[in-house]
Write a structure and sequence with these properties.
Length: 355
């Protein structure tokens, strides 16, 4: 496991710890023998109030490192396996969905071990460049109002159709285009919807993304934990996952969820409308069936999970915030594998409901 060391003026660090919402502060990051000038800030909302916090790092000198301008170090504080996010994002990648790459690192700040963190790529224009993907707008779904609907999840009329979204890379015209898309999703009759929506949305890619959300059972994935990438070549929207710690049979707080908690049809307005069309159902059933026979199986995922947990075991005793041991990880591995088996069977049984 790579060792990351952050060096920061003790006074600045004290101020950062006292004000969890403070602006990014200057620091130095050492990794693999190299030193980089960075700015450092806490990231996330709920996690800022936890003992083990997550960090947002922006490279300043040099401006990019390994092709990235910024990275995220996630504490994964509510996940006793420290692995659900990585397992989910890697699973999406296996389905052919663009997703951030990740790896576990051991973090030190001013010589003190802060524990095991998950380093995540930032989904931005630099990621597109690294993957040789066409440049295009990237819009984050930053809260639960990003449900492709005219109303909020609490059935209140939105004041603006771009509620819940933040432009990561792009301009106001990209938000305007998104508003137009959401309006069409909600107001077009079925005949027009079938003709017009494929001019905005890569429906084949959406099916792969939907398969990933449904298999991993991310309750928030339909209305929050995603980014929209407007592919500059195809001129179509693609969905990308983000923050998938609430998966594999647990919610974002680490509480157990039944394997049938999230329905096969998902939750958001866009999916509900798409599923009214037989040809979309056929694409979905075909893609989901393939995943249930190949990627989303105990046979495929058990060695992946085992290798990941074995990588973590030598380091869990160094994390001052963890109360787990090797036996805890083994027990959690069995729980995840049990979820996969039950979820797989449940989805196969429910397949007829979307045909």
């Amino acid at each position: 496991m790579l060792k990351y060391e952050i060096f920061i003026n003790p006074k600045i660090l004290k101020n950062l710890e006292q004000d969890i919402w403070t602006d990014p502060v200057p620091a130095v990051l050492k990794m693999e023998g190299n030193h980089y000038a960075i700015t450092l800030a806490y990231r996330g909302n709920v996690i800022r109030k936890k003992k083990k916090k997550s960090y947002h790092i922006i490279f300043k000198k040099p401006y990019t490192v390994n092709g990235a301008h910024e990275i995220h170090l996630n504490a994964e504080y509510s996940d006793i396996s420290l692995s659900r996010n990585k397992l989910a994002l890697d699973f999406f990648h296996s389905l052919g969905v663009i997703s951030p790459r990740s790896k576990h690192v051991l973090l030190f700040i001013n010589g003190y071990c802060k524990g095991i963190y998950l380093e995540l790529e930032s989904f931005d224009k630099y990621l597109l460049k690294k993957r040789n993907l066409p440049q295009g707008a990237i819009i984050y779904a930053t809260n639960y109002h990003a449900n492709f609907s005219l109303t909020t999840p609490k059935n209140k009329l939105k004041t603006s159709l771009d509620e819940g979204y933040t432009v990561k890379y792009g301009s106001e015209k990209d938000l305007a285009r998104l508003e137009d898309f959401i309006a069409k999703v909600n107001t077009l009759n079925n005949d027009d919807f079938e003709k017009v929506i494929p001019k905005f949305l890569d429906t084949d890619q959406y099916v792969k993304w939907l398969t990933g959300v449904v298999c991993t059972q991310n309750f928030d994935g339909f209305i929050h934990n995603y980014a929209l990438y407007h592919n500059g070549k195809s001129n179509l929207y693609e969905m990308t996952p983000w923050d998938y710690d609430g998966t594999w049979g647990r919610d974002l707080h680490g509480r157990k969820l039944s394997h049938d908690f999230v329905p096969i049809t998902g939750y958001n307005t866009l999916t509900n409308r798409l599923l009214t069309f037989p040809h979309f159902n056929e694409k979905y059933v075909t893609t989901l069936s393939s995943a249930l026979e190949n990627q989303f199986t105990v046979k495929n995922l058990e060695p992946i999970i085992t290798d990941l947990f074995n990588e973590l075991k030598p380091y869990i005793g160094l994390d001052p915030y963890l109360t787990i041991n090797e036996q805890t990880l083994e027990k959690e591995k069995l729980y995840i594998l049990s979820f996969i088996k039950k979820r797989n069977s449940y989805l196969k049984e429910q397949m007829m409901t979307v045909k």
